[in-house]
Structure formats: structure tokens, C-alpha cells
Amino acid sequence: MALALFGLTLLTRLPFAMTSLYAPDSVLYVRGMERFDPFDQQPQPPGYLWYVLVLRAIAFGTHDPNRAMTIVAAVAGAATVALVYLHAARLYDERTAKVSALFVLTAVTFWAYGGVAYPYTLLAALTTLCALLFWRALDPAQPRPRRGLRLVVASAAWGIAVGFRSDLAIFLAPLWLLAATRATIATAALGAGVVAALVGAWVFASGLADGGLARFLEAVRIQSKFVDDRYSIFGNGPIAIYRNAYELGRFFGRGLYFLIPLVVVTLISTEARRVELRDRWRTAFLGLWLLTPLAFYIFIHVGEYGYIFSMLPGLAIVASRGSIALAKGMRMPRTFKWIVMAVVLGNAAIFLLSDTPISARDIARHDRGIDEKVAYLAPFAPDSTEVVTAYDDVLVSYYLHGPAVLRYDPVATPAFTDPLACDAASSHKPCAGTDVAVVLWDDLLRAEGPGWQEVRMPHGGRLRIARVPRTASLRVSEGLGVEIVR
User: Fold this and answer.
1) 135: Cβ–Cβ under 8 A, 6 or more apart, which residues?
2) CB neighbours (10 Å) of residue 434?
3) 284 neighbors 224 (Cβ within 8 angstroms)
């Protein structure tokens, strides 16, 4: 069954694989494949060295870094579904396992990210694999020596996983501690030593590849300070909780959709709570698996849709228990299959048929839109064209060559005025002529004031273009509003 689920998931991901790099971070991973240097954001610290090395190995055969990343994303997504099935079967039963796997398979953003150049399906696969191994190390039916051996194996898996996704060092630590309580002190110490050795090997290897351990650690320090200053409660106070919770709610909503009511049913249903509390070890295990990343995301940072994949496998299992509890609570057990079918088909329809963010249409629009925008701007004279970008600056630099590019950070510099004259700033180079075509690349940018022409691409992407004299200025307000001031 696990192999069948793996194959089914892989088949549902391949038709939606992107041919272009998905996001700025995707470009950073490509640069890291060319030259690993986290200090220079190649990729962003801490660099994820093992992931980059796997990508290099695959790209050696594909000769296409984007395809290498989408292959890893698809395989990791398929592995996640199979692992969720195995893990849920050991936590509960076969029925829960099958439903949980189907819920993960059709989760909207998880489906989408199975075909893009991003590492987040790998995050889901690794957290599920480690959770499965930690749960096996807790098995009370096994003698303590066997549980100790399983703890060492799980510790090795966790130590290796940290080299792929460093956030798992935090997210899985409570599960390791829980599993260690069922082992002897000596076995727990051995497991801790294995984790420390493997994490240390990753740190030293990253330092060696980055030109020295001190340089690598400084890159990590700078990145950590950036996250702390911009997003965390420590750098921003209580308002950070609101901001992070808002973003987290948005990501959960897009990722779970019809799974959300079932998760709520599990939490509020008396029958569900009674069943869950029969095994307090299992309840504690699931609670720690889900609440640890949740706390990090609320108090520190949650960056984008893929972050919740550290919680998605556990939430799918909780939702599957909710579907069972809902059918029992209605005293209509035959409705169970219909509840599951409605949720699976509902989420699949949102991905396949709707035009919501991170749906199949949205991914295709983004994928084709990059090539279409570049092709549309090809006839433009580079020295009389200026492209404005906020969030897509790295993508623009990777794909668009020739025109001047005005890049800015809408958070750090939400308002400014920039003259378009050739002698005003180096960002306007190359520069010539008395007129300039100002092009808004990002869809999120708002074209304000008169003079803008919107050009729609064949797959729905758009450019906003204003042809103005060099004596004009470009004014940005509220981060995303762009206006030409004559």
C-alpha cells in the first residue's frame, strides 16, 4: 500500500512540474549548486549543504538545476504520503493510515509544491520519517534494549536530516527527549552523541565548503539577526505575534482548506478526546510534534506556504481522526466514507479547477509568465527601459538581462522617490535618451496615477508599463504603490 501511494502521488505531481524557477530562493539554490557560499546568500544561511549536494548530483544527469529541484520535490512529496501512511498505521490503525495519506496527497499547497523548485516537501518527508522512527523507539511492546537500538537509529536519521533542514533541530528535539525517556541513560547518551556528531559533521563540512568555519558561522549569525530584527518577538515585541499568526493563518487556510473543520472536530469532540486520551504517550507525541513548530512560527518567523509542511503530516493524521469522530458523533457510521470523499475531492478540485493562489492554474501562470514577460520585453531598448521589482528581484536578475532594474525592499524602504534621470543613480544603468519605459514586473505592485498601460500575458501574467520623460520621478508609497511624478 505504501508503494502504491508513493507511485500515485508521483504520477499526480509530474504533470504540474514547472520549467522555470519558482521563487527568489530557488535562484539562490541554483547559485549554491554552482558555488556554495552561504555568506554571499548562495544559498541563504545556513546553506542546507546536504540538500545542495543532492541537487548537484541530480543536476549532473539532468543538466538542468530547475529539473533537479523539481525531481527532489516530487519524490519527497511522494515519500511523505507513503511515510504518513506508515506512521499513522503504527499510531492508530489501517483506516486512519489510508485516510491520512489521502489527505496529505490532496492538500492544495503540498500538491503544488511537489512540482516547483523548493525544498519544503523534503521538510515534510524528513519530519515524518524522523517522527516514525521516534515513535518506534517508544514502542512499549519492545524490550528496552530494542527500544534503545531504535533510538540510536532515529537519532542518526535526525542528525542527517538537520543537514538538509536545520529547523528540524528545533522541531524534533522534544520528540527525541520523549523517546529518550524510554531508554537507558547510556543508550540516551549514545543517541545524543550520534546526533551531536552528525550535526557537527554538517557544520564543519559547511564551513569547509564556505571558505572557513568562522565565515560560515558569521553568515549564520547575520541571517539569525536579520530574522530576529524583522520578524521575531524579540526584535519587534508583541506585534510580532499578531503578524506571524496572521501569516500562519493564511498559510494554513491555503494548505488545509476542508481539512480545517476535521481538525477542529478532533479538538472539540468529546468522543475524539476520550479515544485520544486512552494513550497519553501517543497524545503527548502528537502534541509535541505539532506544537513545537507552531510555537516557533508564532514567536519567531513563518516565511511562506511551505513552512507549514513541518506540521501538515501530523495535522492530516489529526484530521483523519476527526473524520472518524464526526461520523460516530452523527451516529451515522456509513457517512464516514462520504466525509472523506468530500474532503479529498473538495481539496483536489480547489487545486485542479480553481484560480486561487497556489492552484494548478496559478502555478502555470507563474511558470509561463516568466518566459512570456521576458519575451515581451526583448524588443525594448535596454538603455531606455527600467524594470521595477520588489519581491521578484532575484528572479528578474536571473532571467532578464539588459535593462536597468530598480530593486527595493518594501519592508525596509516602504516609501521613497527616485528620479529617472540618467545621472541620478547607478540603478538606472544602462541609460540613454530623453524618455524611458518604466515596467512594473511584480504582480503585487500597484500602478497608481495616470499613464500606465497593462499588458496581459497569454497565461494571465501581467506587466504595467508607463512611457515617460527622463525628467520624471518614480514614487513608491506604502511599500507596493508605484506612481510616476512628472
Assistant:
1) 87, 90, 91, 179, 285
2) 9
3) no
> Is 0.85 topped by the overall pTM?
yes
Q: Is the peptide bond before 43 cis (omega within 30 degrees of 0)?
A: yes
| Residue 11: how many other CB atoms lie within 10 Å | 11
- CA dihedral (253, 254, 256, 258) positive or negative: positive
> Position of cell 538606472?
428
- pLDDT tens for the chain, 486 residues: list them: 999 999 999 999 999 999 999 999 999 999 999 999 999 999 999 999 999 999 999 999 999 999 999 999 999 999 999 999 999 999 999 999 999 999 999 999 999 999 999 999 999 999 999 999 999 999 887 888 888 899 999 999 999 999 999 999 999 999 999 999 988 899 999 999 999 999 999 999 999 998 899 999 999 999 999 999 999 999 999 999 999 999 999 999 999 999 999 999 988 887 777 877 788 899 999 999 999 999 999 999 998 999 999 999 999 999 999 999 888 877 777 888 999 999 999 999 999 999 999 999 999 999 999 999 999 999 998 888 999 998 888 898 899 888 888 888 888 888 888 888 887 655 566 787 788 999 999 888 999 888 899 999 998 889 999 999 988 888 988 878 999 988
Q: C-alpha grid cell for residue 427?
A: 540603478
d(CA 146, CA 163): 27
Q: Which residues contact 115 (CB under 8 A, 6 or more apart)?
A: 13, 14, 15, 16, 17, 18, 70, 73, 74, 363
